[in-house]
Specification:
The structure is a single chain. By secondary structure, this protein is mainly β. The strands form seven sheets. Strands 1, 3, 4, 6, 9 and 11 form a six-stranded antiparallel β-sheet that branches. Strand 19 and strand 20 form a beta hairpin. The longest helix is centred in the N-terminal third of the chain and has 19 residues. The N terminus and C terminus are likely disordered.
Length: 564
Amino acid sequence: MQGRIFFCFILLLIINTAQAQTVLFEENFNDCVLSDQWTVSLEGNQNVKWAVGKPTNPKSDSSTIDGSCMLFIDDDFTGDKTEPFVLRFYSTWFHTDGYTNVDFTAQAHFRRDGEEVFRIYADDGKKLHLIREFKGRNYAGTKFSEFVNVKSDLSFIASDSMRLVIEYDDKANWGWWAAIDNIAVSASGQGGEILLGSNFNDCTLPEGWSTEIVAGVDDWKVDIFTDGKSIDGTCFLFFNDDILGENAPLSKHRIYTPFFDADVYERYILTYDFIFRFYEKNEYFQLYVDDGTSWKPVKTYSADFGGPNVDEFLPDTIELSAFKSKRVRLVWEYNDGGWAWWLGMDNVKVIGLGNINDRCTKAIDLTVQQNCLEYNNDYALPDDEWQQNSEARGFLYYRFTPTVSGQYEIKTQSRFNDVLQLASGTCDSPNLMTTIDRDEYGFEGERIFSELQAGQNYFIRVAGKEAEFGLSSGSGCIQLGLANSPGTPQEDFCLSAVPLPWATIVSALTTSTPKPKECCLPSISDRGPMYGTALFPILRKYIGLKPRQILLKPSHFIPVVVLI
């Protein structure tokens, strides 16, 4: 049975993952002809050898990237001392806006001889954005079957109209060849927003970014690394400590992003590609969140992350939701601890996801008798906006304006130790009416009964609370409706309280008797066991002649006992 459940879970996960990916453009050239998704532009020599198929040059091994047809340009077959040329292939237009991730993937082969160049661009109608450039070396080998995987996130340059441009420029040189296959552009992450980010492909520090040399003689670079490699084949942000030499002074440097608003969305997620080749024991790379008043540490790197080469990077994803504020920025600090190796980052992106009612001004309207409205306060702002000096945290706000005066019931079903509050007034000047916190630690929700007036605005807050055990945040739901009167028990008036003889309930204590004797008197209520608050009070009276220590021990319900 467990295996069957696990299989169903994996199948559902695969289905959801597939549904989350939207294919915007795809080309595998398996029809062995250039499809109508492409147009061709050729400048210079009009007798260039290119095709969609399998190469026939006797100097090649007749292999292809994946064994099927591909798009290839054979500069060697074109011939020596022929006119120079620039060959470009333009894809059809497609849209990339509205997504937080737009992934371009392809497989490419490039064999060089001289200065010839093979490039892949994204064209947004205004500018050609370089995705990948091949020049100066063989990137995988000399055979067409020896290829590299190309991947790039186009979300940084997303637009409502984009196309791909594949370019081969022989630079008036008798070169070898290039090929490309299995091109795809897929997107995910609808509903989010990229709040800041850069792929550093312009080989300059983006506007609003800055660096600081706290100690040392060198700064961060936005370039290709000294060995001609980089994280994704284009410029990236790096610091090369190795090239400074062992006699260089200690280096301590920082990177600052622009400030941005982190008080809009439910979640804030930072992603980037990172390489850190660690050497010195005191070496570290530290990420902070600066909210304008203090730097809060988020993550420390003090060991190898990817590597050792800069193109052997790893992606990293960091949750920033705990650091929400109206104005924040990211700060990275590097301390080399001595003579170290190198580190670098690329494709830095902060994404805002989801809506959340964790401020009074974002309160969600409740209606009478609607279905239980689901919530989750895992990523709610931790502070109490109303400053009630309570131990609760992670508040969610709701608003209700009754159309009919009456007794209303507000209840929650939470999987954490929740606190429920009711207030009148405004967001700027709330009047807290009721706070309910029965400490059920997530086994039950909370419930408020209150007389509400028609036309009056009320605010309802749900929060979590740290307790002896249980969770302080999580999921649940809230529901509001007119309260049903529980009716009147037979014995709910003091004047009709049943006399309770002392001899019947408990024996008097003496100095030699450490504990009272017990007996039991049945409840007269016919409403059955009641749990929680005392909704149906049963009144009994006892007239004592002298001070006594008594023990009341009902056996069929959890009581609230008050001695008057």
